[in-house]
Amino acid sequence: MKKLALILTLLASCSAWAQGDAEAGKVKAATCAACHGADGNGIMAQYPKIAGQHAGYLEKQLKDFKLAMTTGGKQGRNDPVMGGMVMPLTEQDMADLAAYYASLPISDNTTPESSVDVALALYRFGDAERGITACTACHGPRGNGTSLSGFPKISGQNAEYVKLQLEKFRSSDRGNDMNAMMRAVATKLSDDEITALSQYVGGLH
């Protein structure tokens, strides 16, 4: 029953997104290029690649940044830089930007051999003894996530950015994950495991 309720909630939230116009989003993306690059692949490793990300996920993050600003950080996703950027955006602006960046190709990335031993088992199988769910359960074997369910694509993502987000989930500095699923996993990961997983997902294709 709980699973059915979750599915219905996800479907309802997806249907609530505005219809995005990628061409309009391209024009509106001029200021985004300062951090995310002209191609959406980020200009520094601590910034996320947003090219090729699911439009619904991108739109949700933009809305969550704005929600944090309007609620004094009590809800949404806190980030002073992104919060300031999204405040003037309308819902249509957010939908257009999401559609544009979703249409762009993400740049290639690799997995260093040093991360495989630690990360491979955790990513594929999790750790039942510690109550860690396998990453594949939500993000898929190739890290592509699922658009309908709201799980982001993590394949090809910058390792430094992934590491920062896992650390934020672990400390609860970031709390806009659905049903606190990422926080539940991240709190059980060691520093070495977070580093290995962050590097590992970059090369998933």
From TrEMBL:
<feature type="binding site" description="covalent">
    <location>
        <position position="138"/>
    </location>
    <ligand>
        <name>heme c 2</name>
    </ligand>
</feature>
<dbReference type="InterPro" id="IPR009056">
    <property type="entry name" value="Cyt_c-like_dom"/>
</dbReference>
<feature type="binding site" description="axial binding residue">
    <location>
        <position position="139"/>
    </location>
    <ligand>
        <name>heme c 2</name>
    </ligand>
</feature>
<keyword id="KW-0732">Signal</keyword>
<feature type="binding site" description="axial binding residue">
    <location>
        <position position="82"/>
    </location>
    <ligand>
        <name>heme c 1</name>
    </ligand>
</feature>
<dbReference type="InterPro" id="IPR050597">
    <property type="entry name" value="Cytochrome_c_Oxidase_Subunit"/>
</dbReference>
<keyword id="KW-0574">Periplasm</keyword>
<feature type="domain" description="Cytochrome c">
    <location>
        <begin position="20"/>
        <end position="105"/>
    </location>
</feature>
<feature type="binding site" description="axial binding residue">
    <location>
        <position position="182"/>
    </location>
    <ligand>
        <name>heme c 2</name>
    </ligand>
</feature>
<feature type="binding site" description="covalent">
    <location>
        <position position="135"/>
    </location>
    <ligand>
        <name>heme c 2</name>
    </ligand>
</feature>
<dbReference type="GO" id="GO:0009055">
    <property type="term" value="F:electron transfer activity"/>
</dbReference>
<keyword id="KW-0349">Heme</keyword>
<feature type="domain" description="Cytochrome c">
    <location>
        <begin position="116"/>
        <end position="205"/>
    </location>
</feature>
<dbReference type="GO" id="GO:0005506">
    <property type="term" value="F:iron ion binding"/>
</dbReference>
<dbReference type="Pfam" id="PF00034">
    <property type="entry name" value="Cytochrom_C"/>
</dbReference>
<feature type="binding site" description="axial binding residue">
    <location>
        <position position="36"/>
    </location>
    <ligand>
        <name>heme c 1</name>
    </ligand>
</feature>
<dbReference type="InterPro" id="IPR036909">
    <property type="entry name" value="Cyt_c-like_dom_sf"/>
</dbReference>
<dbReference type="GO" id="GO:0042597">
    <property type="term" value="C:periplasmic space"/>
</dbReference>
<keyword id="KW-0813">Transport</keyword>
<protein>
    <submittedName>
        <fullName>Cytochrome C</fullName>
    </submittedName>
</protein>
<feature type="binding site" description="covalent">
    <location>
        <position position="32"/>
    </location>
    <ligand>
        <name>heme c 1</name>
    </ligand>
</feature>
<dbReference type="InterPro" id="IPR008168">
    <property type="entry name" value="Cyt_C_IC"/>
</dbReference>
<keyword id="KW-0249">Electron transport</keyword>
<feature type="binding site" description="covalent">
    <location>
        <position position="35"/>
    </location>
    <ligand>
        <name>heme c 1</name>
    </ligand>
</feature>
<feature type="signal peptide">
    <location>
        <begin position="1"/>
        <end position="18"/>
    </location>
</feature>
<keyword id="KW-0408">Iron</keyword>
<dbReference type="GO" id="GO:0020037">
    <property type="term" value="F:heme binding"/>
</dbReference>
<keyword id="KW-0479">Metal-binding</keyword>
<dbReference type="InterPro" id="IPR024167">
    <property type="entry name" value="Cytochrome_c4-like"/>
</dbReference>
